[in-house]
Amino acid sequence: MAQIIDGKLISAEKLTKLRQEVAEFVGAGNPIPHLTAVIVGEDPASQRYVRHKMVACKEVGISSETKWLPANTTQDELLQLIGQLNGDDNVSGVLVQLPVPEHIDERTICNAVAPEKDVDGFNEINMGRLALDMEGFVPATPLGVKALLEHSNIATHGRNAVVVGRSKNVSLPLAILMHSDGKNATKALDATVTICHRYTPPKELARHCRQADIIVVAVGKPGLITKDMVKPGACVIDVGITEITDEKTGKRKLVGDVDFEEVRQVAGHITPVPGGVGPMTVTMLMYNTLKAAKTQAASRLV
Ligand code: NAD
User: Among residues 115, 110, 174, 106, which one has the least CA distance to residue 145?
Assistant: First the structure.
């Protein structure tokens, strides 16, 4: 039976450490780090994610603010607000909760956030830096997956990994972080990575997964990864989140992409949903916000 990787517990430990680091940073005479989140429209999941982020800020001693904008906000209005936040010395980190409404171009918005305040790591500069093994902001979910693997002592160096999903904000940076050179600035994981996506035939997906020592799945399709696709002893990290109605209770609940009850019988390690990658994502956002505040403080001294 697989060992459960408890993302809630690991993230609580990391938050405690971050709280100490924030206190030391502020104690040394620096301003309290500040995160501003911008949310456009009324998507309930986005609102829930932003609330979680604000709660985490409070927990670690980072000040925060959410700018709630109506769904009919124009792209120019949003760009103007991002410009103001970029220029505000009291703001350490800026994030625009995705998705934005369809009339707004997501890439234009991500690129408008100043690279040094881009705590989501979605700006083209930070994405390029990650691809080139350079210091920068790495998106929080891939950072969280890396932290879970490291905390659980999962060997990655030279091992076979499959990343299921190829999105630009989650799976691609994850695949970069998993295969890149651990000796460089991003301290990546040196695995041999195969990327599968919507056009990978199901038979091929199963074949690739069966060869993997580590499977990380970020798709949003409950039950995609089944027991027969997992090599005995492999580590299975489930990034997917889908809200469904529980057949037994009739209540809404969150599930991942992995058939958890079945796969845990063969895997060596597995993350649950909820309580796996989700809490780590929020924690690594706090890590990135403190990092932004520290970098900005250092650059003011020069
Ligand atoms: P996305 O919709 O942008 O990407 C989904 C990816 O899945 C695509 O690249 C697509 O090619 C691939 N895909 C679709 N069907 C497939 C199939 N049958 N086989 C293989 N690949 C297939 O989504 P995203 O933003 O990358 O998020 C993925 C999932 O992760 C979602 O469920 C999202 O809610 C979740 N998520 C979780 C966290 C967290 O903190 N736990 C953070 C971000 C996203």
Answer: 174
Decide which of 107 and 302 is more confident: 107
CATH number corresponding to 140-278:
3.40.50.720
- Fold equal for 30-116 and 140-278: yes
Reported CATH class of domain 30-116: alpha beta
**Residues 170-184: what's their mean pLDDT?**
98
> Which residues, judged by CB distance below 6 Å to any ligand atom, belong to the binding site of ligand 1?
141, 164-167, 169-171, 196-198, 200, 205, 218-221, 239-242, 277-278, 281
Global pTM value: 0.97
Distance 218 CA to ligand 1 centre (A): 4
Report the first-to-last Cα separation within the chain, whole angstroms: 54
Is 8 in the active site? no
Q: Quote the pLDDT of residue 220.
A: 98
